[in-house]
Amino acid sequence: MSDPQLVLADRVRAALAAAFGPSFADTDPVIRPSQFADLQANVAMSLVKPLTQERGEKQNPRRIAEEIVARLDVEGLVSKVEISGPGFINLTLADGWIAARAQDALEDDRLGVPEDENPEKVIVEYSSPNVAKEMHVGHLRTTIVGDAIARIGEFLGENVVRDNHVGDWGTPFGMLIEHLLDIGVAAAERDDSSVSDLTAFYQAARQKFDSDPEFAARSRTRVVRLQAGDPDTMRLWQVLVDVSKRYFNHVYARLGVTLTDDDIKGESFYNDLLNPTAQELTDKGIAEISDGALVVFPPGFKGREGDPLPVIVRKSDGGYNYSTTDLATIRYRSDTEHADRVIYVVGAPQSLHFQMAFSVARMAGWVKGGMRLEHAEIGNVLGTDGKILRTRAGGTVKLAELLDEAVERAGAEFDKLNHDESFDAATREAIVEAVGIGAVKYADLSVARDSEYIFDFDRMISFKGNTGPYLQYAATRIRSIFRKAGTSPDDAHGPIRLEDPAERALALHLLGFGAAVKSAYEAAEPHRLATFLFELASSYTSFYENCPVLKAPDEATKQSRLALCALTLRTLVTGLDLLGVPTPERM
RNA sequence: GUCUCCGUGGCGCAGUGGAAAGCGCGUCGGGUUGCGGACCCGAAGGGCGCAGGUUCGAAUCCUGCCGGAGACGCCA
């Protein structure tokens, strides 16, 4: 184990048990980084009350801290222990221990981060675009954040199932299929622009539906035939799905998102499970008829007039809706997939919907054992005016166009820079693509996923500050050192020695990688990892300024510094990869 | 109306119980032509929407209020 916080937590807990008895072995020792030392244990103050009660006389927190320190075994691990203030225990790690752990990480393919010994099966539902609709900025965040969560979970050894809950079913397909028939199936199969321009296709269908009663009637009939599985209708439906899949995959490839066709389990997948789901809710006496619809009233949810709020399982016309699908999905993930954890990476506005759906699932007994259902809420993307991001014309911003602009702007910034080499057109294009896409992704991943965030090209494509390009640059600059040294990072073995404070600070920071990854996974918050990487880059910069590598005073120092460079590089590249951000070799 | 989320230096954001609230951008003043200046050092600037409360300790928890966003049966 190389994470200082965890190692010290174990030692302090042992000291607590030794000093106050075994019942204190599970107390949280509250170990955290501090400005007064590397780490601080803040448990003494909170023990005043329980110990006073146990011992029958008023306890003093500083005295308690002394008792803990007296039993604390940190030989070789901590070089200095100090009690200050009301009872803070300040811990300074031994340089030798830090160096040894950094050395361990350097020699380890996994950078000292262990895999979970008891992997959990986690389903990450994300992206979830709609068939026959263009992907827009709203999908950007759910796709990127979800992908990062999946990658991070996988790195930690969890059994990750990616689940793209594509909107490929329901009422709109009546009008879409009828419109497809009107313009001709052949055109779609040729991937004709009349279909591949999905926004135009959808809007045309919508407009006819709203203005042409005959078309609307046909559409409704078509929905019924679709849900009944009529073969001809299914074939037409499949045409639409296929066109959309090609389009999704194109976007995913460009974004570097790991989703494939195998990860698609759209709403249609659950069609056959809707009846049994409704039936089970009825059989269990949970669902009831209200205003002609089959509904469940989960306790604690109130509507506009303070009346109970229902989850509609079956509409009064007999049709099913998205609530039914989501319930069927939970049931399936529990009974058939045996998931331990399901993370729904979906927009924050659907919060109430998920709370109610989860609640109904619990009533039905579908949430078994320790199964966790989590809505990882995604905040809206705003324009620089603070309102929902729109085009100048007021329409939704298409993802493809947004990415084009990002890459174009990245190119302009790139050309302004002072490169120490020239690039041919193809190389430049590849770098600029990585920078532009990386900038957009990192901008999204570096803020808390549930906060709304302002989409600002100028900010995200900047090469300074907490941006993707800054981190990419930090990595290429390290690579440049190895090129100049004529060696590879893989050949850097140290040994690592820590003499300069900047070396020590960098090494200590590197040891926090595992904790950052784990915390990002536990909370399903990739920005925690992003923050770690940015701080690592800052720490490296300080090292870079203070500690010459190639012109190090002696050979041993040079080897040590090359090793620190190598470990930093691998940590940055691995971390950025977990976020799905590419790192070009040069830029 | 009810519920949820949010309100942190000029701007954009971290921090969700521990000492004096951090970071980036921007501003001002220095330095540095470097192992890629896409840099470094320093300064000004907030006491965390407001008012109470809990706690040894609150930006973090609770209550109320103000302001913003969103959601609130048969769309997803």
UniProtKB/TrEMBL annotation:
Substrates-to-products reaction catalysed: tRNA(Arg) + L-arginine + ATP = L-arginyl-tRNA(Arg) + AMP + diphosphate
Q: Where does it reside?
A: Cytoplasm
State whether keyword ATP-binding applies.
yes
Molecular function GO terms recorded = arginine-tRNA ligase activity; ATP binding
GO CC annotation, single: cytoplasm
Give start and end of each Arginyl tRNA synthetase N-terminal domain: 6-93
Q: Where is the DALR anticodon binding domain?
A: 471-587
Q: Which GO terms describe its biological process?
A: arginyl-tRNA aminoacylation
- Major site of localization recorded for this protein: cytoplasm
Q: Does the keyword Nucleotide-binding apply?
A: yes
The entry's keywords: Aminoacyl-tRNA synthetase, ATP-binding, Cytoplasm, Ligase, Nucleotide-binding, Protein biosynthesis
Name of this protein: Arginine--tRNA ligase
Q: Which organism is it from?
A: Actinomadura logoneensis
